[in-house]
Amino acid sequence: MVKHDFVVHTSWRGGREEIGKVNGDVISEQISIPSSLGGNGTGTNPDEMLVAAASSCYIISLAATLERAKFTNIHLEIKSIGSAVFENGKFKMEKITHYPTISLTEEEKTHLNKRLPKLLDIADHHCMISNSIRNNVKIEIQATIQD
Predict the structure, then answer these.
(1) Are residues 71 and 139 both part of a single domain?
(2) For residue 85, what is the domain's CATH number?
(3) Which end of the chain is less congested by CB atoms within 10 angstroms, N or C?
(4) Weakest-pLDDT range from 30-34, 37-41, 60-64
């Protein structure tokens, strides 16, 4: 078993209207409650970071999956939407939907159409974030292929 630790330091002073700070090896960002939820909306927030983590993990996993499947001339973009609900007195992320757009040559497009559902599933199951939140957050993938 390989183990790797990801270290993040977070600080906060005051109540819900204040601004905190999150720092990791690379990330350095202010955090607050989103203005849409009654906070001051400065910087990012944990909900956005969860969706960003899922989205970035999935696109990297999809790129690696397509590369292993011999699709070499690709361009990927992804829009991810996290849908949160308030139930039983608390918020929770209910679902994250990824909308990857895969651009590639016409020749590769023909081959990809046949294999896409399986490759999308493989990418999802190789994504550490998907694996970490599975069974708590529904993950959907709705891909588009374009040339």
Answers:
(1) yes
(2) 3.30.300.20
(3) N
(4) 37-41
Answer yes or no: are the C-beta atoms of 84 and 93 closer than 8 Å.
Answer: yes
pTM: 0.92
Helix intervals (H) in 6-105? 46-68
> What domain count does the chain have?
2
Query: In this structure, are 30 and 7 located in the same domain?
Result: yes
Kindly state whether residues 55 and 79 are assigned to the same domain.
yes
Q: Rounded CA gap, 79 and 100, in Å?
A: 6
Q: Please tell me whether residues 112 and 141 are part of one structural domain.
A: yes
Q: What is the pLDDT of residues 67-99, one digit of tens each?
A: 999 998 899 999 999 999 999 999 899 999 999
Domain that holds residue 39: 1-44
Q: For residue 48, give the 3-state DSSP assignment.
A: helix
Contact 76, 100 (CB under 8 A): yes
- Does 109 lie in the same domain as 131? yes
Q: What share of the chain is helix, strand, coil (3-state, %, to 5)?
A: 35, 35, 30
42 has which bridge partners?
none
Integer-rounded Cα Rg, in Å, for the chain is: 18
Coil, strand, or helix at residue 8? coil
